[in-house]
Specification:
By secondary structure, the protein is mainly α. It has helices at 9-24, 28-39, 44-51, 55-68. Helix 3 packs across helix 4 (55-68).
């Protein structure tokens, strides 16, 4: 996840807290996908290869993650 370079230390800390709370809602596989794809910037098909699954499964997992994490959306 690329954060804006002009963020304050407090803002970065807040983002870290929110991210940790989000990750608590995910099982280990979804945590890996979240971190590998969104944090580290790898492609979904690369995550699928690492996990030994079809990329369609990664796409479904991401869709499920969005549903689980919908409480963190901006209003």
């Amino acid at each position: 996840m690329n954060l804006p370079p002009d963020m304050t230390i407090e803002e970065v800390s807040f983002v870290d807290i929110v991210k940790k709370r989000m990750l608590q809602k995910l099982d280990d596989r979804k945590k890996f996908i979240f971190l590998y794809v969104f944090e580290l910037g790898h492609r979904k098909n690369e995550a699928a290869e690492v996990l030994g699954v079809d990329s369609a499964i990664i796409t479904r997992q991401i869709k499920r993650m969005r549903g689980l994490l919908s409480t963190f959306k901006q209003v």
